[in-house]
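Researcher: Final request for today, and then I'll write up notes for the group meeting. The sequence and the SMILES for glutathione follow.
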Amino acid sequence: MDLYYLPGSAPCRSVLLCGKALGLDFNLKTLDLMAGEHLKPEFLKINYQHCIPTLVDNGFALWESRAILAYLVEKYGKDDSLYPKDPQKRYFVNQKLYFDMGTLYQRFADYYYPVLFAKAPYNPEAYKKMEEAVGFLNTALEGKTYAAGDNLTIADLALVATISTYDGFKFDFSKYPNVAKWYETCKKIPGYEVNQKGVDEFVEKFGPLLPK
Ligand SMILES: N[C@@H](CCC(=O)N[C@@H](CS)C(=O)NCC(=O)O)C(=O)O
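Model: Predicted protein-glutathione complex:
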């Protein structure tokens, strides 16, 4: 399976974590977005939406990281524990995946991307929205070890890729003890180093571009 990716990208990191959880070996292909490699005709032929991660499984091209996670478990999981088939259990996983994409990660992007990529000033209101999103996760995690059930699921993999990105940019989790505790649990997931390595690379690359 070819995985077009960048180590620092949060959605790519969730797919790498899923590969570790399932014992899959990806043929890793880095795609330099800054150099516009994703806009070259040969990549557009694979993914007209030109985003990473993009996975090619025996000629079948997939993108949208959370959909990739679900596919990998359904196709290669020994059981359904990472993405339960039971409708209510699956609902909680999907709910958290959509929350991660539309709220938690989106609010990180809304705060940082204009500053990083358009030299806009920081918007304190957007920071409050990030805090609110982490607050939602904190409430969801009350009394729980994992984000969407009694065991690790792909919701945790997606969420930890995002939360570790917040962490890389020094988000203060002290007011969100349930998130802090869950985050420590996630750091013990086998293969977690692949995510940390990517966060470190992301911070090294983009941290210096942040105005003080
Ligand atoms: N919702 C998508 C987001 C993917 C995404 O935005 N990837 C970025 C890198 S982190 C990218 O490929 N940007 C280049 C582009 O979209 O042209 C997912 O979760 O896979």
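Model: Helices lie at 10-22, 41-46, 65-76, 87-118, 124-140, 154-168, 177-186, 193-206. Residues 74 and 85 are 9 Å apart (CA to CA).
Researcher: Thanks, that's everything.
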